[in-house]
Each structure stands twice: as C-alpha cells, then as structure tokens.
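FORM 7B: Structural annotation worksheet

SECTION A. Query
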Amino acid sequence: MTDLTALSSLQDLKLDRAFAHLDVDGDGHIEREDVLALGARLLIGFGEAPTSSKGQDLVASLDALWDGLLDELDLGRDGRLTTDDFRDGMAEAFVHGGSYDPLLGPVVDAVARLCDTDDDGQVGLADLRTLHEAFGLADGTAEQALAKLDLDGSGRITTAELSEAAREYYTSDDPEALGNWLFGPIDSSDAVSESYLASQRRP
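SECTION B. Predicted structure
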C-alpha cells in the first residue's frame, strides 16, 4: 500500500522551507491568518488592491487552498497546522494526490499574474525581488533564482515558466529540477531571512 505522506529528503527540505515562509512569527504553527497574511504581503508588495481582479483571485485561491489542506487532514475549519501536518497535507494532496490543479495551481497562477505587473506575460528581476520579499527571503535570492530559471539569458521568464517552477518546487523529487531554485538555493541556511522573521514575531 502506497504511503501518501512519503517524501524524499529533497521534498522534505523544500516543504519545510515552504512552512517557514508562512510561519513568520516562528511559533511552529500556521493558521488561516498566516496564509492570508502572505496574500496581504504580496498585494502590498505589488501595489494591488484586494478588490481588483488579481487581488480577488489571489485571496479566493488562498482560502480554497487552506480549506483543502484542512480537509485532507480532517482538521475542521478552525484547524492549525504543525510542520508535520503541513508536510503530510502537501504530500497527500499535491505530491501523491490529484489536488494540485484544482487547489494549489490556482494560487500559483494568481501569484504569477501578480508578478506580471505590466501584463505582458513576463516576469523580471524586480518582480522576483518583490515576490521573495513577501515570502521573507534573504537579499540576493531573487538574483540566484533568476539566474537558474532564465534559460535564454533575457533577464526575464514567462508567467508560465514561473508557474511550472512552482509546481516543481512543491512537488518534484528530481534534484535537477529547475524549480528547486524558485526561492534561491535550497541548501542555504539563510534562505529565509532571520532579520525578517525576527521583525515579524509577536511580542
């Protein structure tokens, strides 16, 4: 019988980092408010109103993603997730299950649309920097990510390429997948900025 929570060490590492992107107060748990706070940081960073088309898509997709994870783990509407819960839910729903396209995919696409600030289908370094800042990443990670993802050396990637990189980051166990570099080097101990985390911690 297949273990729907089984992950490779690479997938474990990437999902643990994904948990840290949400757990900005460092209390070891994430709740709906943490997920919506990420959405708020993205909207503020890109100067997008929550009532705009892009803003509404992002908020609605984040809400649906959170509900889907809670359903996967049978935690109820008011649940909160530990690192293990988050990893198990992501594994069951998106790595081994079939919920990527209906649940996580819309979030990824909504974020890619936000990054495409001039609606030309392209994402540049300034856009990636804003994205990384919203995720609380250390300075320089956007440059490292773009260097790996920009295969033609144009200094930009398409929104489709950004979405595919996210799919690889959250689901792939291939150590050569370019999407592993979406948030910078995955083996970097300072990939999530300690100064950022400290500034977000509640008293």
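SECTION C. Observations
Residues 68 and 74 are 10 Å apart (CA to CA). Confidence is low (pLDDT under 50) at residues 188-203.

SECTION D. Sign-off
Analyst initials: ____
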